[in-house]
Amino acid sequence: MKMSPGRTSGTAFTADKETLAGYDQLLKKLNGSNLAYLHLMGAPGTIEERIALFSRHRAHHRGNIVADLGFTQALGNEILGHGVGDAVSFGAPFLANPDLVGRSAQGHPLAQADRETRYAGHAEGYTDYPAFSG
Ligand SMILES: Cc1cc2nc3c(=O)[nH]c(=O)nc-3n(C[C@H](O)[C@H](O)[C@H](O)COP(=O)(O)O)c2cc1C
C-alpha cells in the first residue's frame, strides 16, 4: 500500500498537524492488516527532518516501511542507518539513469532528468537516456 502522509500541494493540500495525526491513527490501524509493506511518501527536507518524519511513522507502524521521495543514495543510507525505514525507493532517478543500480554500486555520477518531458505523453524522456559510458 502506498500513502503520502508528507504530501503538500500548495494551498490545495497541506500535510499539517491534523493531517499527520490522522495518518498516525491510520498507520496504527494497518498494523493488523498483514501488509507486505507500506510505501510512504515523505517530504523534501534535511536529513534531520526526514528522520523525524519517518521516526514518527515508524513509531506507529510495526510492518515494513519503504521510505519515498527525493532520496539520493547517501540520504537513503542515512535513513536506513537510523532504522526508521526498511527500504528506500527511487522513482525519478530511474528515468535519466536506466542503470541506476549499477551507477550507485560503482559510484558513478547520476544524470538529471528533464522535467519538461515528464508526463508529456511521449516516450521521450522515458526511454532515451543512455547508460553510463565512462
Ligand atoms: C514518471 C513517474 C510516474 C509516476 N507515477 C506514479 C503513479 O502512477 N502512482 C504513484 O503513486 N506514484 C507515481 N509516481 C511517484 C513515485 O512513485 C514516487 O513517489 C516519486 O517519484 C518520489 O520518488 P523520487 O523522488 O525518487 O522520484 C511517479 C513518478 C514518476 C517519476
From TrEMBL:
<protein>
    <recommendedName>
        <fullName>NADH:flavin oxidoreductase/NADH oxidase N-terminal domain-containing protein</fullName>
    </recommendedName>
</protein>
<dbReference type="InterPro" id="IPR045247">
    <property type="entry name" value="Oye-like"/>
</dbReference>
<dbReference type="InterPro" id="IPR013785">
    <property type="entry name" value="Aldolase_TIM"/>
</dbReference>
